[in-house]
Amino acid sequence: MRKKKTIIGAGVLTAIASSLCCITPVLALISGTSGVASTFSWLEPFRPYLIGFTILVLGFAWNQKLKQKKDMDCACETDQKPTFFQSILFLGMVTIFAVAITLFPYYSTIFYPKNEREIIVVDKIAIQTLDLEIKGMTCASCEEHINHAVNQLHGVLNIKSSYQNGNAKIKFDSAKTTLKEIEKAVNSTGYLVRITKKK
Q: pTM (2 decimals)?
């Protein structure tokens, strides 16, 4: 019993660890502690191994549970009813939780508010485009965290972050916001920024 709990617990922990780099930016947004968003980005290279370990552990737990059920069906019936934590229902709930957590990077963007606002441009000469190199982004949740932080600035017309390219392209009105403010907004998320191109 104790061994099974340990196995199931290990499966849940590795599932959480596999998506921690993408869960942290959402938690940082909700709690208002933006600077910790990139704290677990170092886990990203280990994500495939953590997912694989989760699958192995939960597969083993399911194998043991189904094997045990089959053995019980064949043997004489006992009056001892398994506890909730020994039930197939509990293992099913743990498996669904592990799958939901593992897939979190694919739906994490739903937690970010849409920053749509009408922007009036007075002087088109003041419009500038900026290309930032950003280190530490690992998924769409990281992109949304940076987009959200920069979109809070007055004068930002458009931002498109890409974790795959490790950059963000920002179009802004230099009469309303500055390069320093944009850099400060990105740095406040905990990701490392470097200005590469400015037009």
A: 0.69
